[in-house]
Amino acid sequence: MDIINVDSKILASISGVLLGFSMFFVKIAISSGLFGIGFFINPLTWLAAGLGLAGFLIMQKSFHDGYVSVSISLIAGISIIIPVVLANMFLGEVVGMDWLGIVLILLGVLILGFGSKHKEKKVKKR
User: Fold this and answer.
1) Is 124 a residue whose pLDDT tops 60?
2) Of 35, 77, 120, 125, which has the most beta carbons under 10 Å away?
């Protein structure tokens, strides 16, 4: 396994976690009932924006260092499941049978991402 791919997978996982938490905080900010200007002065909105920006920048680095198909699979899977689990745990949202759909989507994303064969090797820049 190439060290470049391992690093890009770690970066993709970190990016997915940051983007997942960002989406969770946006959900909390929206559910607080503040609309219009009130939404933008809510500290959770700024926390979500900061986490989202950090996640986006790390995602770009992951794309640059490794295979995009593997990175996007990790990012999509992690960033989808984190807000769902956190909303279930902390906001009392009931997911019910929707778990089956979430699991099937995640399996599809992971199979597509890790099932592809990469023919080109990444060349390190000097």
Assistant:
1) no
2) 77
